[in-house]
Amino acid sequence: MSITVLIADDQAMVRQGFGALLAAQTDISVVGDAADGQAAVTEAKRLRPDVVLMDVRMPKMNGLDATRAILAAGFDPPVRVLMLTTFDIDDYVYEALSLGASGFLLKDAPAEELVRAVRVVADGQALLAPTVTRRLIADVTRRRGASRAKPTPALDALTPREREVLELIAKGMSNTEIAESLFVAEQTVKTHVSKVFAKLNLRDRAQAVVLAYESGLVVPG
């Protein structure tokens, strides 16, 4: 089965360019597009795509509000949102992840990175591995200041190993990298990750990163 994608961007050239690139992949189908946030929400509800490529700046309703509306609908299976951003709007990144977006991608990213991002997000993972992603998260949280860390009593429910796994997730490590770091089997890491998500009521790795930074468990830099 192919991955279905909805592209939401107010620039026709972006929609057409991304659409042509993704449609050329044998495992991806572009099922629709939207030129503003309201249309993105309407089309997402109608088409139920696997992934929505969501621009941050759009008329009528911005990408953040559209993302909030789509995720609040509670689709099953879930609709994943991949935010499209540029360097001049870094401040939106943290809020997008807080809302439950599965990650974000720079608009000028290479074609192969866009294709990979769609596949990663469709698979239920968060797009947190690229160096630029870690840097942007760190920049935004550093500006918020460590003094604003929110106490998170739920962290007390984690075992020492689960807290360690959460820290490594927040640093952008994959399950394979965590397994190598802790000298355990990858399946063991997957079990720990599942328990962390269940205990903290997290949807995915993106939310895990946000919580780790907000609680002060991980300090940027």
Automatic annotation (TrEMBL):
<dbReference type="InterPro" id="IPR001789">
    <property type="entry name" value="Sig_transdc_resp-reg_receiver"/>
</dbReference>
<dbReference type="InterPro" id="IPR000792">
    <property type="entry name" value="Tscrpt_reg_LuxR_C"/>
</dbReference>
<feature type="domain" description="Response regulatory">
    <location>
        <begin position="4"/>
        <end position="122"/>
    </location>
</feature>
<dbReference type="InterPro" id="IPR016032">
    <property type="entry name" value="Sig_transdc_resp-reg_C-effctor"/>
</dbReference>
<dbReference type="InterPro" id="IPR058245">
    <property type="entry name" value="NreC/VraR/RcsB-like_REC"/>
</dbReference>
<feature type="modified residue" description="4-aspartylphosphate">
    <location>
        <position position="55"/>
    </location>
</feature>
<keyword id="KW-0597">Phosphoprotein</keyword>
<dbReference type="Pfam" id="PF00196">
    <property type="entry name" value="GerE"/>
</dbReference>
<feature type="domain" description="HTH luxR-type">
    <location>
        <begin position="151"/>
        <end position="216"/>
    </location>
</feature>
<dbReference type="InterPro" id="IPR039420">
    <property type="entry name" value="WalR-like"/>
</dbReference>
<dbReference type="Pfam" id="PF00072">
    <property type="entry name" value="Response_reg"/>
</dbReference>
<keyword id="KW-0805">Transcription regulation</keyword>
<keyword id="KW-0238">DNA-binding</keyword>
<keyword id="KW-0804">Transcription</keyword>
<dbReference type="InterPro" id="IPR011006">
    <property type="entry name" value="CheY-like_superfamily"/>
</dbReference>
<protein>
    <submittedName>
        <fullName>Response regulator transcription factor</fullName>
    </submittedName>
</protein>
